[in-house]
Amino acid sequence: MSQPDEFVLLGKVTSPYGIKGWVKVYSYTDPMDQILDYQDWFLKLNDKWTPIEVDKGRSHGKGMIAHIVGCDDRDAALSYGGAEIAIKRDQLPELDEGDYYWHQLEGLRVKTLDNQDLGKVSYMMSAGTANDVLVVKGDAKAIDSEERLIPYLPESTVKEVSLETGTIRVDWDPEF
Predict the structure, then answer these.
(1) Which pTM was predicted?
(2) Would you state the pLDDT for residue 4?
(3) pLDDT given for residue 31 in this prediction
(4) Which pLDDT does position 5 carry in this prediction?
(5) Does residue 27 lie within any of the structural domains?
(6) One domain, residues 12 and 73
(7) Strand 158-162 vs strand 147-152: parallel, antiparallel, or unpaired?
(8) 97 domain-assigned
(9) What's the pLDDT at 74?
């Protein structure tokens, strides 16, 4: 997922919906309809971020649908299929101290309490109603090249997150 640092990915347009220019949307937000809190989207079209405005949207079945201003027929909606959806980073609400957006954790180095380097956070994933999970991939700086799934449990497993130093300290056995 490469995008300029000023953007944060929120989802993607999957396909047209109906004949009046609506599109189906796959949302990365939690809850998924939170993507509609942002009307000023940027879509990646032809390898270029293009600003668009969403004037309507709603949950539909297990997904979302949205209407893009100026997109009023199925043919126009077809041109948006597969486009990634992003917003400018400064549109995100500020979080309480100690809370982080997933994009802030991705790319951080993960070290155990005794300073063993486990690698970098490749991506985050949800474990449903349980907790989020750090997917950590070993690299040349790490103790090995293993991929580890580490539960994101602040104060329990995750002891410290430092955006300044780019590290996460975990209470984790590398052999697990």
Answers:
(1) 0.74
(2) 54
(3) 86
(4) 73
(5) yes
(6) yes
(7) unpaired
(8) no
(9) 96
What tokens appear for 152 in the block? 């994101």
**Is residue 65 domain-shared with residue 106, that is, in the same domain?**
no
CA 165 – CA 147 distance, rounded (Å): 22
Domain presence at residue 37: yes
State how far the Cα of 113 lies from the Cα of 156, in Å rounded to an integer. 12
The domain total for the chain is 2
Same domain flag for 135 and 86? no
Whether residue 174 is preceded by a cis peptide bond, meaning omega within 30 degrees of 0, is no
User: Cα separation of 176 and 148, whole Å?
Assistant: 8
Rounded distance between C-alpha atoms, residue 145 and residue 143, angstroms? 7
Within a domain: residue 176?
no
CB 99 within 8 A of CB 161: no
| CA-based R_g, the chain, Å | 19
Full residue range of the structural domain in which residue 35 is found: 7-90
Closest CA to 13 of 58, 60, 79: 79
In the chain (176 residues long), the average pLDDT of successive 10-residue segments reads: 72 96 92 90 94 95 94 96 94 91 94 98 84 95 97 95 97 93
